[in-house]
Specification:
CATH superfamily of one domain: Ribonuclease Z/Hydroxyacylglutathione hydrolase-like
Distance between the termini: 28 Å
CATH class of one domain: Alpha Beta
Shape: globular
Oligomer: single chain
Number of strands: 17
Helix content: 10-25%
Strand content: 25-35%
Length: 321
């Protein structure tokens, strides 16, 4: 829910916003539009008798969102629980993504639509769920990143199987990459000039060479505009690919067995660093946002926003189970 992400999501991901949204941290490029989104979507949902949007974040991040980012909503004279249900996502376990409006998994107070709520992340990760039954089959487990703001990337699971790891914003952090390598595909934050807050293009080779990442597909996001994307001349390994607008990448639930990026064929996913955008396939990226569409009984969409610019990359993915 960073600046520009909402419009980008509506244009490239789905005609409506996901009912469940994960926020990695409280920087403006990841949460800047959150108050307005909750005000509009929450008010509309309440008026129509629909469940309120579900906001997911690590407890520390949720505390910052409630105390700072969402403070402006108090001017409405309504409690925050009038706009969303709040779901804390602790580390150490995989927490089920609630069907929008379902009960929170942590101790809480009751919201206006009868949902339990608790109180602290694209870009953030927004998870849109749908389909039958009482849940969507997705769950998330956060991991602390190396960033100036309290920040948590995550692993997304489909029916208990890891399908996607995301660093959110982070400086080079080997332990974080090893943790996320549980998933067969990783979205890694990197920019031209590395810092303590963001990995640099020059560090992508180190990341790709980590033993735990062998057999994983590695995609770079958070690099900014398309003209700021890493090129082969930046030393980016051939197997490392870029999140590009319109790209589609199939997400597999089974453990990956091929070298990093080996399954990223031109037919389904676009090129490596500096290459062309692919057409068809599953996971589509632009410069920051993402969608995952499950082909199964229940549909789910996962949106991952990286830098929150208006040109933010779109990530589109299909999870086949």
């Amino acid at each position: 829910m960073g600046y520009g992400v909402t419009a980008s999501c509506l244009q490239h991901v789905h005609a409506t916003l996901p009912p469940a949204i994960y926020i990695s941290h409280n920087h403006g490029d990841h949460a800047g539009e959150l108050p307005l989104v909750l005000a509009v979507e929450g008010t509309a949902a309440a008026a129509a008798g629909r469940p309120l949007p579900a906001l997911l974040a690590h407890p520390d991040v949720m505390s910052e969102l409630r105390g700072y980012r969402l403070r402006e909503l108090h001017s409405t004279g309504k409690p925050l629980e009038s706009f969303a249900s709040f779901h804390e996502v602790p580390t150490g376990i995989a927490t089920p993504v609630p069907t929008c409006g379902s009960s929170s998994s942590s101790s809480s107070s009751s919201s206006s639509n009868g949902c339990s709520t608790s109180g602290r992340g694209s870009s953030n990760v927004a998870v849109e769920t749908g389909g039958g039954g009482g849940g969507c089959g997705l769950s998330v487990r956060p991991f602390r990143t190396r960033h100036s703001e309290t920040c948590y990337g995550l692993v997304i699971y489909d029916r208990g199987q890891p399908v996607l790891g995301w660093t959110a914003d982070s400086g080079y952090d080997e332990q974080l990459y090893l943790a996320l390598a549980e998933a067969p595909l990783l979205l890694v934050d990197a920019r031209a000039k590395g810092s303590s807050e963001h990995a640099g293009f020059a560090e992508l080779a180190r990341i790709a060479s980590l033993p735990a990442l062998q057999g994983r597909q590695l995609y770079v996001t958070g690099y900014g505009r398309q003209d700021e994307a890493p090129r082969p001349s930046d030393g980016v390994p051939a197997g490392v690919r870029l999140a590009r607008p319109g790209m589609r990448i199939p997400l597999a639930v089974q453990p990956a067995a091929a070298p990093v990026g080996a399954e990223a064929t031109a037919a389904t996913q676009g090129g490596a660093a500096g290459g062309e955008t692919g057409a068809g396939g599953g996971l589509g990226l632009g410069q920051g946002l993402g969608k995952a569409e499950k082909v199964s009984e229940a549909e789910g969409r996962v949106a991952v926003a990286s830098r929150g610019h208006a040109e933010a990359a779109e990530v589109r993915a299909e999870v086949r189970v």
